[in-house]
Amino acid sequence: MFDNREVFSSFDYLPTQYLCEYIKFLEFDAIEYNSSMNKGRYNLAIFSDEKLVCKTVEFLDVTDVSYNMEIID
Question: Cα torsion for 37, 39, 40, 44, to the nearest 10°?
Fold first, then answer.
């Protein structure tokens, strides 16, 4: 049988893809946004790595991942 969620997940991706392509069109190399997992930290969405220079490398062992959820009324 066909799962409707699989169809919708493809469509859910379209606005994000459009936004990324538009940002690349404007010639941004990357965007920085707040991390939803670590307050005070940020993430990078990199569109062009030509100007990147690696300064350090760290290997981390993820020991725990936790999510707290509440029902939205």
Answer: 20
Q: How many domains does the chain have?
A: 1
Overall pTM surpassing 0.85 (yes/no) = no
pLDDT in tens, 2-32: 555 565 666 777 888 898 899 989 999 888 9
- The residue range of the domain holding 45 is 1-73
Query: For position 39, what pLDDT does the model report?
Result: 87
